Task: structure prediction
Amino acid sequence: MRSRFFAIVALVITSAFLSAAASQQTAAQLYQSGIYAEEVAGDLQKAIGIFEQILKQFPADTETAARAQLHVGLCYEKLGLEKARDAYQKVIDNYPGHAEAVGVARDKLAALLQAKGQSPADRKAPGVRRLWTATGNSELQGSVSPDGKYLSVVESDTGDLAIVEIVTGKQRRLTSNTGREWKEYAFGSRWSPDSTTLAYTWVNTNNKGELRLVALDGSSPRILAGENTGDWNAPLDWSADGKYVLATVSKTQTSADMSVISIGDGSVRTLKTFDRISADGLFSPDGRHIAYSRPSGVGVRERDIFLLSVNDVREHPVIQHRADDYLLGWLPEGRGLLFASDRSGSIDAWSIRLDNGQPQGEPAFVWRNIGMVKPMGLTREGALYFKTAGSQEDIYTAVLDPKTGKVTGTPQQEPLPYQGHNTMPAWSPDGKSLAYIALRSSGSQYVVSLYSTETGKVREFPNEKTFFYPRWAADGRALYVFAPDRGLYRIDVQSGEVSLFVKPDARGSQNAVLVSPDGKWIVQGHDTDAGSTDQILRRDTTSGQETLIERVSFDNCTLALSRDNRRLAMLLRTEENLRVFKVMEFPDGTPKEVYRFKQGGRFIIDIAWSPDGKFIYFHHDPAGDGQWHLKRIPAEGGEAQELGVVTRRSRQISVHPDGLRVTYSALTPNTEPAQAWVMEHFLPKEKR
Result:
């Protein structure tokens, strides 16, 4: 009897000791025990118990708690229980700052609802649905009406402002521009809070933007600002009371005023001047602040998010991070901001709480991998309308047979980030790097990028300016790029330093420019009349002295210098539907015609020499059906040779130094048009 008593006492003491030891386990140790029970032992009920113990015992360790809550859902799902949905929803609601766990929970929740034949909207669970896809005669340059009934667009064939009824797809013009051949046209537009009026940019015959208003039924059109001023006016937002339009007023190509314009009398109040034109800006619901994104410094591409007080015009930062962050919208009731960020490696949606304009705590993760979207409005109910630029253009390389010169196999897409949004390739002189232009932020940013074939890594050269058509210096140490101000800039590849090489020239053509190996002269097409390039000149970069090389009747000429720098090739648009190749000994030879072909349209057709100087490569659309054939002609003259590749449009062609590869940008085989979407029920539930 006595020995039995001591055995019971020993058992109680042992149990208490083991219980105390278990209670002293860390959250991480318990989590590993739960994973073992779930994935190794297959005891799902025991695993759920362990994960729920973590939630009760270690609520402050939110990282482990978020993963534990996620695995509660995973276990319930494996058991086939409805509780899985609620468990996943708790991850989203309770742990918004933990991107990985929330992302998996969203994916799992959406899959469960789809398997049940339910839409996310039916269950008021997170979901994204497409509203509208751009058609052949409409460009998605507008926004969604606050009542969710209409999209504002621009008609491609007339340039008119139009609206699309989302439910029926019916389209109706609000302006009358038929027959003007786009000499004037509508641009971006924004809806009034009551969905009855549109503020939009109207580009006049002087290529300046007037700010205009028009009613939903097309009545009461009027010019609000910009008439006869020579400025570019673009609407950003309306105040909640409908009395003011927030707009950018650009007096130059490099600066802009953020202004508030009265609907009543058209008076303009300038709030702030930026050295770079801002693409966004939104009134807070109470009208006290304006939120916007802008680059964090000079020569920096990455943006931060700021608030501007409307009353005292004071700016203060809300989001400052080394990543690229840009504004998506105000949270309902002005409780904070929703923004996009690439800080986690993909472009995700995040939120930040605000109290009287001041950030509260750290940003919280909201939605994984939303991509390069452009916001079109965030409703009071928390639905985000946005548009995607689609997948449009990318870079491809074709391999040539060394004997026949024809392409062998299928051209391969270069392994670059953000596929479908890359263009204008240029091989370095040593063939180890590919320079190109990458499109970011739903097509609103163009970034000079450098892909290394040795490491597979991409390096970007951020800058507040927009650059196009990269060309390598002969020594491979620098890139020459164009800016919209028509200046030629030099980027030092080693340091990334950007410097102005040739001052902006009102006569400068879009891409017809070459720089000598020693940098002492340039060859450039010059505009002497609006819309026509009729001179090709050689200019001394030191003295500015110019020498006429050739006269041209039409614009869109292209130039290429042979690898030994001894011959200049020119592709000239000598008639409206005729292109002519000419080659000359450089610098003092006489241009000699070597080939001509018919080509309609004002397309810029880039050309490139083979490294041995025997051939000139180009693309040509012989039937005018949008099918562009890769060809080459002998530099001494002769018939063009078909190389066996047909693309959908092409821009900038570059021949690899080995002479066996031709790289070009073209429309992707499965081009996606711009689309309008809505994301619903994705914000974490409010804890009041």
Remarks:
- Helices lie at 2-23, 27-40, 44-57, 62-78, 83-94, 99-115, 120-123.
- The two ends are 61 Å apart (CA to CA).
